[in-house]
Amino acid sequence: xxxxxINAAEWNLAKASEKTIVIPGHGKIxxxxxxxxxxxxxxxxxxxxxxxxxEGKTLEETIAAKVTAAYDSKWATSFLTGDVFTKLVYxxx
Length: 93
Hints:
By secondary structure, the chain is mostly helical. Helices cover 66% and strands 0% of the residues. The protein has helices spanning 2-15, 32-54, 59-64, 69-75, 82-92. The longest helix is centred in the middle third of the chain and has 23 residues, at 32-54. The protein starts with a helix and ends with a helix. 16% of the residues are buried.
């Protein structure tokens, strides 16, 4: 779930130094700055989805809000689109 992903990113950031090389399961090799960017993306999307859900928005309304739009060009894939990711986050928010 999204909270587990955020916790894992936080844990890894706490262990990483500026010299740490991060080899993700998908995507390009990076370092602490890229891991920080990833964590920030997860937190931002989680917070937006959680706020919409708290307002009583349905899953369909939350998907229509395109909360992942700012990140889709970098993070979305043909398998895990912004809409699919929003659905996963909504389920755990």
